[in-house]
Amino acid sequence: MTRPSIKRRERDVIIQALRAGVVPRLGLQHIQVGRTREIEEMVRDMERISDAGAAIRFIIGEYGSGKTFFLNLVRLIALEKGMVAMSADLGPDRRLHATGGQARSLFAEMTRNLSTRTKPDGGALASVVERFISQAVREADEGKKDVHDVIRAKLAHLEEFVGGYEFATVIAQYWQGHEEGDEERQSNTLRWLRAEFATRTDARAALGVRTIIDDASVYDHLKLFSAFVREAGYQGLVVVLDEMVNLYKLSNSQARHSNYEQILRILNDVLQGGASHIGVLLGGTPEFLMDTRRGLYSYQALQSRLAENTFAREGLIDLSGPVLRLQNLLPEDLYVLLANVRRVFSGGDGGEQLVPDEAIKAFMSHCSQQIGDAYFRTPRNSVTAFVNLLSLIEQNPGTDWRALIGGVEVGEDAGDDLRVIQEGDGASQGGDDELTSFRL
Amino acid sequence: MLARLKWWLTGFALVVVVAAASPALCQSQAVRDVQERLTTFGYDPGPVDGVMGPKTRSALRSFQEKGGLPVTGEADAQTLSALGITSAPSATAARPAATSSIPQQPVRQPSPPISQSPPPLAEVSKQDLAPKPATKPIAQTSPRQPVNATPGGGFNKWWLVPIGLALLFFWRRRRRKPVAASGDRGVRSEVDARGVRVGADRPSRRPAAARWQAPPQNGNDFWVPPSQSKSVAGHEIGAMVYVGRGLRSQRSGKAENCLIDPSLPVAKRNADYAGDHMPYWPSYSEIPPASRLAYLQWLSSGRSDPEAELGYVFLYFYGLERRLFLDRPTEKEASALIAEIHRLRGIYSGNRSFDRYSQALLGAAVILQHQTSPALPDPQSFVDRSDWELPLSLKLGLGGEINAGRPLSGEWLLCWWLAHPQTRLRTPAKRAFEEFKQLFLIRFEAAHPDGLVVAKPKRALSFSYQAASASFERDFSQELSGYPDVDRLTRPVTLAAGIAEGCMDDLDAYSRYIGRKPHGRGSIEAHALLPEELANLMPSAELEALRGWTNKQIADAHGVVPVEMVLERLEGEVPSRVGRRALIGAADALARISVGLAPDPRFAIRAPKAGEPVMLFCLPDRITKLEDVSADYTGALLSIVLGTYIAHADGEVSNVERQRLKSQIDRMTSLSESERARLHANLTWMVAVPPKLSQLRKHFDSIDEVQKQAIGQMAIAVAGADGVIDPAEVDAIRKLYRAMGLPEEQVYGDLHQMAATPASEPITVFKAPEQPTGYAIPRPPEKEAPPGKGSLRLDQDRISSIMADTHRASQLLSQIFADDTAEEEGVDGSGDEGIETVLQDGLDSAHRALVEELLSQPAWSEDELVKLIRQFGLMPEGVIEAVNEWAFEHFDDALLEEDGDYLVNLGIVEAIRLESGRMTNDATQYQTA
Fold first, then answer.
1. Of the residues A92, B49, B246, B911, which has the maximum number of CB atoms within 10 A of its CB?
2. Whether A290 and B748 lie within 8 Å, measured CB to CB
């Protein structure tokens, strides 16, 4: 069994992304270390979602255990499977439930980050809407029907959902704006979909609808979105929410409770078949899950649903429960990751490796001297430095790696999340002159 | 004061007394004698060799200095007398007093302490106790009494009389006063105990001393045999006394002090019952008439008034003594005499003086009665003895055993030790003598299964009876010939003392208990305190009953019994409160019958409260010292307590959790089997009675950070054992961390770590065996030893497994992200459908046309593109999405890439060109462009 070969384009993307300290958009299969079972499980989830099913997962891991990387990987898998992904990090001003606009803010963030395979970096809301309308138009053309009627017909079943009628109306408005060349109307439509209308009055004035996406209806609209993307020809909707620990940090127990209620609602919907074509991934730290005073465990109904089947019993690991735990990284994991990176540099197994295994070990020793355990617990900076090192050796053939390793400076990871950033940014940072953390 | 006075008097007397003539000591025998004496008195003249060397001289000098004599360094006459050697042995030997055919009629006073030789009395008495054969030649001249022994020294007697009287006065006062004042007759023995009396009026014990004595006068004519009775002065005094005139003392020549001379006056009234006029050495002929009256009254009134003055009893005793040893009575009569002594002892042995003399008499009588080895005496009889030497009968017995070549049995040795003058018997041996005896015998038996072989000492046993009356001495050398003298043997006694001390130590607790509860003997508590060896020997019905009861409890109720029930069973009553001491006692008692009691308050985090159950369980062996546990035990117990505490958190201890704790105990191989049994029982108990954190807290102070981490890990492992981490368990662990001072946030990380660890590699819970001390508690699986800065240790196996896993993940992901179009096209594209086919797959006619249009140009500005799309009546975003989606489907990449302007993906163009020859021109066109 040989490992898949690495294409030149993948190689470049990976190296650039790693150098920038971000998750590569392509070729994750070449650097992913282990976690086969977790990935398999997520792939199964995606298949279930495509199959009119639903899934919810709590991705629990400590800081540096690779939650964000994993979430990104899953998101990319989802996109690859023809799904639409919405993602956002929770924060003090972005919650699942609120009364001061924080939930609406979260929704806005999610729709801004709405991505498809063709637009993996987000901003695909208009694409999705237009794709839907395009299909409606085509159907209308083929069936000699009124486009408006087709849109209405296709979205008729959305009206079963809370706010479904308004949603359909807004979509139709978009078509209307297109027909009439009214770009402002189209823009308003998208603004509505992005929950950017703060008041109903504004929405009625702009689009003639009586409701808006507000703090209380975030999840309802996620469900509408999932139904809608199906109609647009996608396989389903995957919602990725990271930094759930921000809910745990809420000091107001009432507010915390309301948010947990939302999670419970999602959980119940998913587990009881009340939702389809939707997957929700929630990333959080162990205390978010297990703290019995402020974490999910403090909410009895959630706790009872989450605790079961969470732990392995006598030799078996059960990943089918809603909680998926990520182990902390160990030095060995980092070693394999660095070996993978080296392999990417050489373009696969065939090429000659830039540095021998001892170089990797020496590099790790060096890192551990510089920043202690963090070098493998939060490996971003270590990886970046390693990529820089390899680049340097690649471009200066004959350089002895031993001479270079001692000079590598590895900064401590400040704790920012790995997130996909614009490819262009990655490219701009990838130049040789960007070796800021590299000193000879 | 007294001693100094005596010293002075003696010295003075000697100076006066000693004859001037003092031939130089040149004979080696004489020198030897001097050396011998010097050695005896504690000086060091070197070896006894008969040579007057410098050492001998220097010893003489120090002797003279000490004795207040002229310091000459020569053995002059004065010094010789002081040493107790007559100036000219050879000269005086020819005329010993013994040669006189008539009984000596000395003028001397009955008790002349002045005749005592000058050295410290104690030394003399010591010497007396152990007569030295070497001194025999000296003794020929009666060294102690040079005055009397020297015929030419008669003039000195007159000097001696007042001095002797003065001394006697002192003695009497000293002796009488306490007796009269307090009535405590024991005080009399004080005097005796110092040996003063012995030394004072027993001239010598040396057999040779008898030589100057008159042959014993037969007393048959004076003796009133038991069948008769005599009347004296109107008093019917009964039998067993000497009555008459003329019976004289063998030693003093005066009338025998026991002889009742009917011709002497007896008072008619005012009897001296209190003995106010009785001397210490009474003699019937010398006591005042009032005292005679009291004596006769005592005799006639049954000789049993317990309040009688001891002097009278002694007076009577003197007669019995004389009869027994000098008159050689028939065996029958001897028995009667001895019986009479026993009778008197029954009444008067409270007086130590009488006790001692009568006992001495009985001891000597043994020789008369049985010439062969006496039987083994009852060790108990020695318990209250405090004698200055081994009883004769015991010496005889021991000598007999040794003579017969038998190793000494434990009983003999015990007797020997008990009777030994240096033995100090402590309370445990007295209070619990039977137990002590048994324990001694068991331990002796264990150490010397064949008995103790004692080499026969060379020294022969010699014994002469010193009459209490001081009027005669009876030498038993003949009867005792062949018996070894065990007196000087120390090894057996030391050995016995070693065993006995240990026994007394071990019986201490038991003895205290018996002291507290005199009726507690045989009770379970008392039994519990017995040393292990005795436990089985001292049967206890109570204990047997208890054993039956506990067996039943263990069988019927799995050993879970209310604490009150156990205490009631053990103490016989329901305790008002469950005390720590009671529980410890109960645990100890139960351990005797191989039953454990959990919790043992000595180790448990808390003792059971009233109303709670305790746990009875079988111990693998009898344990006498429950408090002795290995170093790991307490730590192990603590970890079990914690484990149970965590397991209890969710309200119940599930089977899996309990199982995990149990297997944890089983893995503690550093503990003994019984310790593990105890841990198991404690576990069961704690499952029934949950521990509380507050009780644990104080135990945390004593453990270090690593151990705290380990305890945390173990608690987490237990909590997760049943596959469910209950919020209550999380709470419990958090409280535990807080109690230990660990950061609470760490709880979740650790819990997570445990949950995320693949179950295929079991969590290391206990790594106890290698740990030398302290708490043998699990170490955290990984975090425990993080590679410190600079050290890099990689687990190659782990790398391999990660590599394999990575490989699988890579395969999986590449299936998802695979650029599989080419292959599929390779198969499907064999025909010549070309671009049409490709375009038709997934694109409608409008889009198809649009794509063909798009391919005509390598890049489009946004405006151009929007314009173009609108020409087709389509929506820009939707088109780009649809077209790129289509491109992904077929070429695994987007056709249009937005980079300010929209760029047409040349790769796809190339692919399309390859697919379709029609596109060749266009492609060439792009490239040139």
1. B911
2. yes
Judge whether A12 is closer than 8 Å to chain B, CB to CB. no
| Contact (CB<8Å) A34/B789 | no
Angle at B386 between CA B385 and CA B391, to 5 degrees: 70
Give the pairing of strands A54-60 and A323-325: parallel
Choose among A29, A126, A325: nearest Cβ to B817.
A29
**Which of A217, A309, A225 has the alpha carbon at shortest distance from A271?**
A309
Retrieve residue B773's tokens.
């001390």
CB B766 within 8 A of CB B777: yes
Residue B493 near residue B424 (C-beta atoms within 8 A): no
Closest partner residue to B877 (CB to CB) among A130, A309, A310 is A130
Straight-line distance from the first to the last Cα atom of chain B, in angstroms, rounded to the nearest whole number: 145
Categorize the per-residue pLDDT at A98 as very low, low, confident or very high, splitting at 50, 70 and 90: confident
Which tokens belong to B758?
A: 């693949």
Q: What is the structure's pLDDT at A236?
A: 92
Counting every residue, how long is chain A?
440
The set of residues, in sequence order, having a beta carbon less than 8 Å from that of B728 and lying 6+ positions away, is A292, B649, B650, B651
Report which listed range, A101-105, B668-672, B729-733, is most confident: A101-105
Give SS3 for B14: helix
Under the banding of pLDDT at 50, 70 and 90, the label for residue A52 is: confident
* Residue from the list B730, B805, B879 with its beta carbon closest to the beta carbon of A36: B805
To the question of pTM greater than 0.80 for the whole model, the response is no
Nearest residue in chain A measured CA to CA from B808: A36
Q: Is the CB of residue B659 less than 8 Å away from at least one CB of chain A?
A: no
SS3 content of chain A, % helix, strand, coil (to 5): 55, 10, 35
Q: Residue B560 and residue B552: Cα distance in Å, rounded? A: 11
Distance CA B79, CA B60 (A): 8
Query: Which among B720, B731, B878 has CB closest to A134?
Result: B878
Cβ <8 Å between B812 and A117: no
Residue numbers of A between 276 and 315 with CB closer than 8 Å to B: 285-287, 289-292, 295, 297-298, 300, 303, 307-315
Q: Is A333 helix (H, G, I), strand (E, B) or coil?
A: helix
Tell whether B732 is within 8 A of chain A (Cβ).
no
Measure the CA–CA gap between B410 and B452, rounded to whole angstroms.
8
- Please say if the pLDDT value at position B450 is more than 50: yes
For an interface test with B, the pick among A5, A6, A36 (most B C-beta atoms closer than 10 Å) comes out as A36
pLDDT of B795 higher than 80: no
Give the whole-angstrom CA distance, residue A31 versus residue A343.
9
Please give the Cα distance from B608 to B637 (Å, whole number).
16
Q: Is B738 helix (H, G, I), strand (E, B) or coil?
A: helix
Cβ separation A330–B813 shorter than 8 A: no
Q: Which residue has the higher pLDDT, A410 or A193?
A: A193
DSSP A94: B
- B504: which 2 tokens? 């007394």
User: Distance (Å, rounded) from C-alpha A118 to C-alpha B758?
Assistant: 37
Higher pLDDT, B15 or B215: B215
B865-895 residue pLDDT tens: 888 887 777 778 888 888 888 887 777 777 8
Of A73, A81, A312, the CB nearest to B759: A312
Task: Report the pLDDT averaged over residues B170-195.
Answer: 42
Q: Which regions of A224-377 does DSSP assign to beta strands (E)?
A: 237-242, 278-284, 323-325
Distance of CA B809 to the CA centre of its chain: 70
Chain A touched by B810 (CB under 8 Å): yes
Contact B725 A30 (CB under 8 A): no
Angle, helix B289-300 to helix B310-326, in steps of 10 degrees: 70
d(C-alpha A191, C-alpha A169), whole Å: 14
